[in-house]
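re: the backbone from monday

yeah here it is again, tokenized this time
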């Protein structure tokens, strides 16, 4: 059944405000270079030289960017903590004239999701979410919204306010909805019925059809009972602050998770290696 949640968003008030909006990045001349100030979360890191690395950061100002960090692999380096994987930080960058990578000038930690490093299942889901963000094309005006989604989902995951499988499904559906693939869940695509005991989800077209209109269905149609449809509507349509105010359990959660994953794979057509890793460590949750 679907139940209420006590999550109010206040727990993240020190991380990112619900009313915070994307602002134009500030540029100031420093000698021959220009600096840019951005905030974002490190979603990938790649070691280059012995102590250097390239970090991929999801920012609210510029979307996904790459930053070259010198010496960050050394524990005593001043950038070590701020550039760690899944650390939310503020960065001051140099624009490079010879590379697409930014150069790091300053970095300040805003929040670290410590529990990700102690739970392999949490870490696997965070890695999958990161790969999704890197592969899905995000409109420039949605960068801040996607960052807020990512941060809030990590919060729901690491505080165990939602199950791991529900966090995964919610991120998949909301990311698609915010990047041009929002399904039409208002009513049956044939008769327009808004509410009934049984619907089927049309995976290819992102529509629903009621049990009365669906005389037969193929492998692209998935059963979605009314509580599942209500959850899908929350994920696709609700304001981000309100999206986290429900829960769903049992067979309805199973339906939701299957639909969200199938819908994402159908419309991104990409082989996510991190999804395979997630499934290899995911602990199946009891339906009841």
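seq for it, each position gets an aa:
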């Amino acid at each position: 059944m679907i139940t209420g949640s006590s999550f109010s968003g206040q727990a993240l008030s020190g991380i990112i405000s619900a009313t915070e909006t994307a602002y134009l990045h500030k540029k100031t001349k420093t000698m021959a270079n220009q600096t840019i100030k951005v905030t974002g979360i490190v979603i990938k890191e790649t070691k280059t030289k012995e102590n250097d690395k390239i970090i991929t950061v999801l920012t609210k100002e510029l979307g996904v960017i790459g930053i070259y960090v010198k010496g960050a692999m050394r524990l005593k380096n001043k950038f070590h903590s701020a550039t760690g994987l899944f650390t939310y930080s503020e960065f001051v960058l140099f624009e490079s004239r010879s590379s697409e990578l930014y150069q790091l000038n300053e970095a300040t930690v805003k929040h670290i999701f410590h529990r990700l490093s102690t739970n392999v299942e949490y870490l696997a889901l965070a890695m999958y979410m990161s790969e999704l963000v890197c592969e899905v094309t995000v409109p420039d005006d949605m960068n801040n919204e996607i960052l807020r989604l990512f941060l809030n989902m990590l919060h729901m995951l690491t505080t165990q306010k939602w199950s791991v499988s529900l966090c995964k499904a919610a991120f998949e559906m909301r990311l698609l909805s915010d990047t041009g693939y929002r399904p039409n869940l208002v009513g049956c695509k044939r008769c327009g019925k808004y509410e009934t005991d049984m619907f089927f989800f049309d995976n290819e077209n992102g529509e629903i059809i009621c049990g009365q209109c669906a005389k037969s269905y193929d492998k692209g149609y998935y059963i979605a009972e009314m509580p599942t449809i209500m959850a899908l509507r929350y994920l696709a349509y609700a304001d981000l602050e309100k999206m986290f105010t429900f829960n769903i359990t049992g067979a309805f959660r199973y339906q939701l998770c299957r639909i969200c994953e199938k819908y994402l794979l159908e419309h991104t057509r990409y082989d996510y290696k991190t999804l395979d890793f997630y499934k290899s460590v995911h602990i199946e949750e009891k339906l009841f």
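Residues 116-281 form a domain with the de novo design (two linked rop proteins) fold (CATH 1.20.1440.120). Residues 1-32 have pLDDT under 50 and may be disordered.
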